């Protein structure tokens, strides 16, 4: 091959020129390149390499055309074509006269060999592809093709167009035989349909699309749809219509009605079993068609095939119910399989998990809409299937709290979308993504778990001011409110409101300082959080630097002057600030730090080194917190330590920490806070789950009391049913938890068991 490629290269780069022969497509365009030295009277200036390229292209075109035409004219007894694979002995028969399975065997073998050889030839002529052909395509000559595409075009025009009717009829005959129970060679059908798809070369596509592989997928399927799918669907409808007609001919309607009445009135086990077998037979037929689509047809056929099946099933009593049931099972199976494929990565990759779910859902949502016109029964089948594979799958089964994993990953995906990043989507794209989030959220059973995770992440975005878009945040809250009600999003709305009030308070505080000629010496902003609306935040006890302490005292005085009876508790663990550092040579840095980091670094204005014990005394922190802060500063090379520090272990009091005077960073702005503010995801998840369980007990208790207050007297089974039904919109409580709550309410004398009927409960006012 290397020597052949070299020959092609030498020919293309040669300067000798022959006359321009005809090629597939029209000649070189007029005025293609005006700066060349050679001229043609008709077409204008042309280079020698143009002539060489045209000549090479034309010779190759003629060769491929001759080869393909010979496939039709070959005599099968020729010693060069020993086709022992044919099912029947056909001595001296022309290839173009073959029919049925013999034709398919011949066609698919020739196609496979031709396709492989075409790829080899494409590699040999890669120099021609990269240079002359590329220039022709760049200049808009739509009648010139890359070599592999050229081969397919020739096959399509010469061999395919002559034999397409016979090949398609042979394929349909095989499918018909399979439907009638005969074993067939499915590979023949798959090879033919693959060939039809690959021959979908739409010559009206632009050369840029062809070259870049960006052809319209619908255009790509033009040959497949026109010469196979349309006939296949018509054949499918005719086949089952004939089956139905044959049944009616042998089983008159009166006999059918007698059979139904017999089953209904007598309940005969034998008659019922016979009827059940018929239903199973219908289901098996539907499954056969779906399997057929997967095994050897293109997936694009799935939608029109579903329409055909629906039209046929609609004529049969309970036919659509069977089709709905089959669709639900199929979607569930596909969803579980898709998630299982990515389970390892998706367990920690929220984006992969959610997009995998959406890919499956969107595919079948389109199917239900286009093939079944969004009929309510099919929508319900899709909803049931999605609920099943979203809440219980290969990812959730790996989590100790199985039902919590899907809502947790969905909340994390929302956080990724709404948090500032270097790759933020456009506003319209973000809105569409959030709408897709709601598609998945609809099927989450434990919506209270999602709320816990989302609220926690939402609070972090607001506190750290890392929300990508306030409008997008409010938009998603409104979507959640629309689906779950005001109560579900009440806390989120209050948190948004707190941020707005805080902005107004900051402006008022600056006016307050200006009116009293007070200079804080620092830029000071605050976020006032309503204690009942925000998640619990960790506290931090420490001695604040003098300037910070002065600012806090002034704001406290301002706040108390406006609000009586309120108490401010400063959440220093979540506070951050920016510091200007001038002590590292001539370069000035801006450090983003936590309050604790800031307090530590400010001490180094007075001395360049401290012992761990002296820092404890000066800052008033506990040893564990100070160790974490020092580790973060040492790992960022701002400080140096006489011994290795570990977050998990407390440092000794005599460990010396000093300022690293040789600190250097390419960046001017350096965020030191990230390392300190990281949390253990596993520990965080466990804490959220613990909070969820506590909240659920309160919600279940309130629900039971509400029902008992209304009903006064109710049986155990009725109470359980009503509780589960009322809470299903928020979460799916376990039966054991409901029973425990009933027991607790009996102990607290909110209700009691009836002494005469122990399965009955009575409300106690």
From TrEMBL:
Pathway: Protein modification; protein ubiquitination. The keyword Transferase does not apply. One of its GO terms (cellular component) is cullin-RING ubiquitin ligase complex. GO terms for molecular function: ubiquitin protein ligase binding. Residues 405-634 form the Cullin family profile domain. PROSITE patterns: CULLIN_1, CULLIN_2. The keyword Ubl conjugation applies. Keywords: Isopeptide bond, Ubl conjugation, Ubl conjugation pathway. GO terms for biological process: response to stress; ubiquitin-dependent protein catabolic process. It holds the Pfam family Cullin. InterPro entries: Cullin, Cullin-like_AB, Cullin_CS, Cullin_homology, Cullin_homology_sf, Cullin_N, Cullin_neddylation_domain, Cullin_repeat-like_dom_sf. Belongs to the cullin family. This is CULLIN_2 domain-containing protein. The lineage of its organism: Eukaryota, Metazoa, Ecdysozoa, Nematoda, Chromadorea.
């Amino acid at each position: 091959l290397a020597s052949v490629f070299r020959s092609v290269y030498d020919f293309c780069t040669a300067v000798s020129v022959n006359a321009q022969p005809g090629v597939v497509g029209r000649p070189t365009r007029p005025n293609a390149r005006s700066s060349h030295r050679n001229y043609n009277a008709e077409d204008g200036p042309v280079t020698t390499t143009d002539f060489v390229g045209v000549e090479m292209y034309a010779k190759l075109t003629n060769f491929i055309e001759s080869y393909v035409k010979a496939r039709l004219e070959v005599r099968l007894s020729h010693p060069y074509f020993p086709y022992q694979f044919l099912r029947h002995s056909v001595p001296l028969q022309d290839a173009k006269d073959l029919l049925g399975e013999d034709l398919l065997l011949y066609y698919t073998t020739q196609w496979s060999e031709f396709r492989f050889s075409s790829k080899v030839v494409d590699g040999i002529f890669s120099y021609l592809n990269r240079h002359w052909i590329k220039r022709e395509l760049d200049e808009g000559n739509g009648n010139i093709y890359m070599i592999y595409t050229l081969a397919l075009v020739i096959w399509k025009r010469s061999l395919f167009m002559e034999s397409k009717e016979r090949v398609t009829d042979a394929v349909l005959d095989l499918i018909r035989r399979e439907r009638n129970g005969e074993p067939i060679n499915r590979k023949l059908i798959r090879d033919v349909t693959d060939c039809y798809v690959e021959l979908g070369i739409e010559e009206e596509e632009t050369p840029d699309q062809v070259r870049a592989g960006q052809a319209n997928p619908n255009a790509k399927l033009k040959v497949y749809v026109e010469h196979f799918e349309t006939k296949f669907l018509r054949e499918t409808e005719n086949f089952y219509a004939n089956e139905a007609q044959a049944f009616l001919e042998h089983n008159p309607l009166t006999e059918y009605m007698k059979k139904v009445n017999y089953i209904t009135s007598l309940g005969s086990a034998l008659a019922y079993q016979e009827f059940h077998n018929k239903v199973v037979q219908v289901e098996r037929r539907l499954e056969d068609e779906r399997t057929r689509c997967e095994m050897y047809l293109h997936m694009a056929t799935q939608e029109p095939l579903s329409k055909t099946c629906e039209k046929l099933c609609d004529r049969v009593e309970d036919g659509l119910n069977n089709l709905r049931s089959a669709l639900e099972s199929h979607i569930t199976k596909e969803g579980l399989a898709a998630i299982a494929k990515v389970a390892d990565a998706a367990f920690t990759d929220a984006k992969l998990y959610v997009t995998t779910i959406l890919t499956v859902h969107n595919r079948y949502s389109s199917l239900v809409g286009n093939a079944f016109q969004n009929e309510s029964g099919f929508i319900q089948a899709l909803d049931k299937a999605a609920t099943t594979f979203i809440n219980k799958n290969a990812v959730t089964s790996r989590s100790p709290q199985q039902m919590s994993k899907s809502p947790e990953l969905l909340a994390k995906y929302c956080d990724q979308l709404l948090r500032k990043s270097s790759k933020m989507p456009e506003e319209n794209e973000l809105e569409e993504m959030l709408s897709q989030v709601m598609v998945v959220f609809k099927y989450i059973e434990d919506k209270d778990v999602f709320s816990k995770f989302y609220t926690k992440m939402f609070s972090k975005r607001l506190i750290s001011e890392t929300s990508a878009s306030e409008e997008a945040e409010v938009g998603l809250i409104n979507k959640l409110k629309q689906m779950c009600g005001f109560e579900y999003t009440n806390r989120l709305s209050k948190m948004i409101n707190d941020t707005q009030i805080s902005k107004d308070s900051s402006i008022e505080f600056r006016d307050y300082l200006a009116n009293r000629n007070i200079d804080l010496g620092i830029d000071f902003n605050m976020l006032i959080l309503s204690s009942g609306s925000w998640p619990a935040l960790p506290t931090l006890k420490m001695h604040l630097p003098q300037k910070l302490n002065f600012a806090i005292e002034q704001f406290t005085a301002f706040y108390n002057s406006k609000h009586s009876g309120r108490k401010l508790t400063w959440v220093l663990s979540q506070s951050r600030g920016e510091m200007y550092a001038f002590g590292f040579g001539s370069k000035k840095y801006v450090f983003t730090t936590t309050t604790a980091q800031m307090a530590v670094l400010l001490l180094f204005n007075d001395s360049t080194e401290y012992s761990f014990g002296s820092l404890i005394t000066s800052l008033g922190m506990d040893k564990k917190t100070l160790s974490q802060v020092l580790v973060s500063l040492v790992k960022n090379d701002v400080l140096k330590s006489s011994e290795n520090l570990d977050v998990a272990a407390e440092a000794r009091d005599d460990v010396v920490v000093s300022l690293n005077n040789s600190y250097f960073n390419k960046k001017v702005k350096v965020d030191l806070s990230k390392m300190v503010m990281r949390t253990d995801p596993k520990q965080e998840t466990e804490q959220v789950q613990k909070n969820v369980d506590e909240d659920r007990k309160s919600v279940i208790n309130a629900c039971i009391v509400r029902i008992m207050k209304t009903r006064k007297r109710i049986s155990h089974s009725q109470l359980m049913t009503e509780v589960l039904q009322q809470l299903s919109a928020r979460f799916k409580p376990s039966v054991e938890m409901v029973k425990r709550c009933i027991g607790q309410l009996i102990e607290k004398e909110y209700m009691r068991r009836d002494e005469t009927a122990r399965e009955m409960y009575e409300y106690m006012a």
